[in-house]
Amino acid sequence: MSFGTMRYDEIHIENLEVFARHGVFPEENRLGQKFLICLTMYVDSRPAGTTDSLEKSIHYGEVSGFMTKWMQENTYQLIESAAEHLCEELLLQYPLLKGVTLELKKPWAPVGLPLETVSVKIERFWHTAYLGLGSNMGDKKAYLEQAIQSLDALHGCSVEKVSSFLVTEPYGGVEQDDFLNACLMLKTFLPPQELLERMHEIEQNAHRERIVRWGPRTLDLDILMYDDLVFETDDLVIPHVEMHMRDFVLKPLQEIAPNKRHPILKKTISQLLSEVCGQNA
Q1: Nearest one of 110, 271, 264, 92 to 189, comparing CA atoms
Q2: Do you find a cis peptide bond into 239, omega within 30 degrees of 0?
Q3: What CA–CA distance (Å, rounded) separates 243 from 272?
Q4: What span, in angstroms and rounded, lies between the C-alpha atoms of 187 and 114?
Q5: What is the pTM of this model?
Q6: How far out from the chain centre does Cα 15 lie?
Q7: Of residues 105, 106, 140, 251, which has the active-site annotation?
Q8: 141 is catalytic
């Protein structure tokens, strides 16, 4: 399996039979029925392969038992919901997993027609996002520290690295107090748009008000990069459209990811910072 520039090894579990209670109809939730699970686990199998050590691999027997128990202890109307939540729990339970492809099959689904199986198949991976943080109102340090804690507490997120806090002059020509800026590296299985929504909630909890562009704010959170993704919607552009021109972004980012390459410009963060500092000299 190839994901971005990384290629992963695969461990397969095929057609694990589980009797569970998932379905729209009350009798499906009450009486239960058979489900089949096909799982592909994306891993780096070389450490286990070279050492012959089970501790450096993922025990497919334990995974099968985990999925069986989870399917039996939880109930969802939609197999889409069951598959989504099961993928999340697998990623959280097994640290060696890079990602999974899961197909949840429902044999003889009650649709009143002669079909053999209905199934949903989804693929979920861990991703690496780089975020920018800023504050220039109130207790700036406390706002940044609380934001870091809130991001780390999000379901499906883990803060891996945090830069030092940097005092910078305000950007954009609006007269205001100096900013305190930082960057962090986030491990997440949330897709970009969903991550942005959670970040907006954290900003709102810090009483962020979007009144004046580039104006003062208690907390400002931005997605700078997300893997090597190039992505654009009306409210989100990745990589951040101006990150390569801002030393207050590049300086803290260089602390935690100096060799990370901008997915469009193909230059490392260290190179981009050197260019910006040269222009400002």
Answers
A1: 92
A2: yes
A3: 9
A4: 44
A5: 0.89
A6: 28
A7: 106
A8: no
